[in-house]
Structures are given as structure tokens and as C-alpha cells.
User: What shape does this take?
Amino acid sequence: MAEDRERNINLPRELDAEKLAEVALALLSLTLHGGRVWKALDWDLMNLLHEKGWIADPLSKTKSVIMTAEGEELARSLLLKHFAASRE
Assistant: This one.
């Protein structure tokens, strides 16, 4: 069981993993209910991304959503803008 907790984390090296972890935890808290969180983003947040034209309509039975070309380009630039690792 200890081996399960020692998984390799393969995030891109150019990103600050600590910042990403903090933001991921904050986003998960949007789904907090009774001490548990969903392993997905808040529905209102997903609907907002759809309204902005960055993802396809999230209302479906599938567990994934299609990111638009605009959303994909913006996501890449935002990752680097907000989470680029310091080059000290």
C-alpha cells in the first residue's frame, strides 16, 4: 500500500507543481459536500467555460468534454502565465 502512495508525478517541468497543486485543491473545494469532493470540476464552472466558448457543452453522459481550439490555445498560455516554474 505504501507503494501506491509513491506514484511518479509527471507534470511538465516548465510548470510549478506546488502552485498547480494549490489551485487544484482550491478548485476541488468547489465540489465539497460533507467532507468529500468530486474528482471533477464544479458544474457551474464547467458551464462558464462553455459560455466563454472554451469547451463544448458539458451536459452529456460522457466523462470528458471537448476543448475548443480557442480554449486549447488559451489554456496553454494561461498555464505558462500563471504556473511557469521560476528559472533561478
Remarks:
- The helical segments are 2-5, 17-28, 43-51, 69-83.
- The radius of gyration is 15 Å.
- The chain has one domain: 8-83.
